[in-house]
């Protein structure tokens, strides 16, 4: 039997992590989470998490200050163990985040609405090949 795809959730809001984790697991995927603030501060190594779990998708929360958060994501994507991995970017304020990322990536807003979480899970399913095609504006990061 094939192992279910693994999704790493990088977020510093425990409530959002829990909502995403539950929805991802209900979609029969494996969810692993890490505190984005702990990774930024060097208290947790994302490389170790990626090597241990080999995620097919990483859900990254773009949080204030957005420009710093975006630069950190770009830094992560250049690292040897993360290069070429699929990222889905979320934010509590997608409109503000879009002013930083422009059209480099589609940002999914998570403002606590059930549809927000469902949109992210549907995007994850499409990336791992278990859902419909992504819309053209939702580019791989």
Structural class: alpha/beta
Strand order of the largest sheet: 2-1-3-4-5
Largest sheet: 5 strands, parallel
Helix proportion: 40-55%
What is the CATH architecture descriptor? 3-Layer(aba) Sandwich
Q: Average pLDDT value?
A: 86
CATH domain class name: Alpha Beta
Along the chain, the helix and strand elements come as EHEHHEHEHEH
- CATH homologous superfamily (4th level) name: Response regulator
**CATH topology type:** Rossmann fold
* End-to-end CA span: 30 Å
Count of helices? 6
Residue fraction in strands? 15-25%
Keywords for this entry:
globular, Rossmann fold, five-stranded parallel beta sheet, alpha/beta
Any overview of this molecule?
- The structure is a single chain.
- With 141 residues, this protein is α/β, with parallel strands linked by helices.
- It has one domain (6-127): Rossmann fold, CATH 3.40.50.2300.
- It is 43% helix and 18% strand.
- It has six helices and five strands.
- The protein has a five-stranded parallel sheet with strand order 2-1-3-4-5, sandwiched between helices.
- The longest helix is centred in the last third of the chain and has 14 residues, at 114-127.
- The protein is globular and about 40 Å long.
- 28% of the residues are buried.
- The model is unreliable at 134-141 (pLDDT under 50).
Task: Give a short summary of the structure.
With about 140 residues, the chain is an alpha/beta fold.
List the helices and strands and how they pair.
Elements: E1 6-11, H1 14-26, E2 30-35, H2 36-40, H3 46-53, E3 57-61, H4 66-78, E4 86-91, H5 94-101, E5 107-109, H6 114-127
Parallel strand pairs: 1-2, 1-3, 3-4, 4-5
Helix pairs in contact: 1-6
């Amino acid at each position: 039997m094939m192992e279910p795809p693994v999704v790493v959730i990088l977020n510093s809001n425990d409530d959002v992590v829990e909502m995403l984790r539950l929805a991802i697991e209900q979609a029969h995927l494996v969810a692993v989470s890490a505190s984005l603030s702990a990774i930024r501060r060097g208290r947790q190594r994302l490389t170790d998490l990626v090597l241990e779990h080999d995620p097919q998708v990483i859900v990254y929360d773009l949080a204030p200050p957005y420009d710093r958060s975006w630069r950190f994501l770009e830094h992560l994507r250049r690292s040897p163990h993360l290069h070429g991995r699929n990222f889905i970017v979320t934010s509590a304020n997608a409109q503000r985040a879009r002013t930083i990322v422009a059209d480099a990536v589609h940002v999914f807003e998570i403002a606590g609405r059930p549809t927000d979480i469902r949109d992210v899970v549907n995007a994850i399913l499409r990336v791992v090949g278990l859902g419909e095609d992504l819309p053209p504006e939702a580019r791989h990061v």
